[in-house]
């Protein structure tokens, strides 16, 4: 008789479920994004690149669970492998071969991945990269890009919400706290640099030359503006780290999809450590961090002095490992090139739509992802890409239009993350929808 227990026979609307959710979950949601007013749409099922909500509305999905689904939904080979694993159990305290096979697959892909460890999320992966860097160097501070998103670890989220009222002088961007009550110590230990600005970044790093454990770099940082890091910029940071005894750490949680070996494949210099997540879990919770053997030794329990003790109840669980391995096997070099080519084709078509509608819209991105900006010149820095409140309102209206009228889902910055389930048909739908949207909203 408990009214809170869902009756399976009772068919309810998203609105009803949301009202119940609000009683138990703050704001009714567990993730603050992808929320379309007036309530979230609860999903019934999904297949390939289409998602169907419980009202029966089918939508074309360019969000792909925040960029995590490289093959779209319910790929039969992943589903079969996972079901087979689940029948045998899901987590055992002791290790499984699934973990070792996935480790080898990923290490074989990227030359800099000499050793790897698995965790359960991208947040954890970035956290572990920071802690491994500290353990290795014996230093406490990290440097990160203004506005960059690296998950929900205190240090990694500093400056994530930097805006004109608090971001400070560009020569010394503020260590802006994201959450109320962030320890001052955490803020003191995070040095913020302006992305793609070589001179200012090096000058800022120089001020802390012997204190920085690692410089954290996302090679195509979504919240900064989804613009690729300029090769000269990445190389300058690399050189600075060599000179000053710091590590170069890449956050490739999103960007590993960009090339066969991640976005790092596109640079002449290699990071010492890399955080991974999203697509390497094949649709299941995952994270990993990989890098130089001598650094990863800080995690080795056989060492007489264990510098970074690390564990996790569900780390390397065989379900995520199996799904991830099958997903990445399917995402081989040929599949990566094909998906990137399809995405570039979509960009060409969207550029045509921008021209036809004659709107000031530009596109940034890399590989199988891109983001639209409501300005005619593509931004290269965070402050250039920053959207004021007025622009944000317009973007939200556009997202709602796409969601309700065009039946298309995407990430809430007007970013699209492609999957191998997509074909020419889907990019035609997308570019037509953008054309309709540009004509209607005229940014
Ligand atoms: N780093 C980047 C660049 C991300 O985009 C994200 C997630 N969007 C994370 C880290 C955190 O990953 P997770 O949500 O799996 O904790």
TrEMBL record:
Q: Does the keyword DNA repair apply?
A: no
Q: Which domain of life is it from?
A: Bacteria
Q: Which residues form the signal peptide?
A: none
State the SUPFAM superfamilies in the record.
PLP-dependent transferases
GO molecular function terms noted in the UniProt entry: pyridoxal phosphate binding; transaminase activity
Q: Which CDD domains match?
A: OAT_like (cd00610)
Keyword Transcription regulation attributed: no
Q: Which Pfam families match?
A: Aminotran_3
Keywords in alphabetical order: Pyridoxal phosphate
Identify which cofactors the protein needs according to its UniProt entry.
pyridoxal 5'-phosphate
**What does the sequence similarity comment in the record state about its family?**
Belongs to the class-III pyridoxal-phosphate-dependent aminotransferase family.
Q: Which PANTHER family match?
A: GLUTAMATE-1-SEMIALDEHYDE 2,1-AMINOMUTASE, GLUTAMATE-1-SEMIALDEHYDE 2,1-AMINOMUTASE 1, CHLOROPLASTIC-RELATED
- Protein name, entry field: Glutamate-1-semialdehyde 2,1-aminomutase
Native source organism of the sequence = Ancylomarina subtilis
């Amino acid at each position: 008789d408990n009214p809170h227990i869902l009756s399976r026979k009772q068919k309810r609307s998203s609105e009803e479920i949301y009202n119940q959710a609000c009683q138990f979950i703050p704001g009714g949601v567990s993730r603050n994004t992808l929320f379309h007013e007036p309530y979230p749409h609860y999903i019934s099922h999904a297949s390939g690149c289409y998602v169907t909500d419980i009202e029966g509305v089918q939508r074309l999905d360019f969000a792909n669970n925040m960029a995590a689904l490289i093959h779209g939904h319910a790929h039969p080979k992943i589903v079969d492998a996972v079901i087979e694993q689940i029948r045998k159990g899901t987590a055992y305290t002791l290790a499984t071969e699934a973990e070792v096979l996935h480790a080898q697959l990923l290490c074989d892909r990227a030359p800099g991945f000499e050793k790897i460890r698995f965790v359960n999320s991208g947040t954890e992966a970035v956290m572990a990269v920071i802690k491994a860097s500290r353990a290795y160097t014996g230093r406490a501070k990290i440097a990160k890009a203004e506005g960059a998103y690296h998950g929900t670890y205190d240090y990694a989220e500093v400056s994530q919400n930097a805006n004109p009222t608090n971001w400070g002088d560009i020569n010394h961007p503020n260590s802006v706290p994201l959450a109320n009550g962030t320890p001052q110590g955490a803020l003191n230990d995070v040095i913020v640099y302006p992305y793609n600005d070589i001179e200012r970044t090096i000058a800022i790093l120089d001020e802390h030359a012997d204190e920085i454990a690692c410089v954290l770099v996302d090679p195509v940082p979504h919240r900064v503006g989804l613009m690729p890091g300029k090769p000269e910029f990445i190389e300058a940071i690399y050189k600075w780290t060599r000179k000053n005894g710091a590590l170069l750490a890449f956050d490739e949680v999103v960007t590993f999809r960009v090339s066969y070996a991640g976005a790092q494949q596109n640079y002449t210099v290699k990071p010492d450590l890399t955080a991974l997540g999203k697509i390497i879990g094949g649709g299941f919770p995952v994270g990993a961090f990989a890098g130089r053997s001598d650094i990863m030794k800080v995690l080795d329990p056989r060492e007489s002095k264990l510098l970074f003790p690390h564990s996790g109840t569900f780390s390397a669980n065989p379900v995520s490992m199996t799904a991830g391995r099958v997903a990445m096997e399917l995402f081989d070099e040929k599949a990566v090139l094909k998906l990137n080519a399809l995405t570039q084709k979509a960009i060409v078509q969207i550029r045509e739509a921008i021209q036809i509608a004659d709107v000031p819209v530009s596109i940034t991105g890399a590989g199988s992802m891109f983001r639209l900006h409501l300005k005619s010149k593509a931004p290269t820095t965070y402050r250039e890409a920053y959207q004021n409140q007025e622009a944000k309102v317009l973007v939200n209206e556009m997202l709602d239009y796409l969601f309700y009228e065009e039946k298309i889902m995407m990430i809430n910055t007007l970013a699209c993350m492609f999957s191998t389930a997509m074909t020419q048909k889907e990019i035609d739908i997308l570019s037509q929808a953008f054309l309709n949207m540009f004509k209607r909203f005229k940014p």
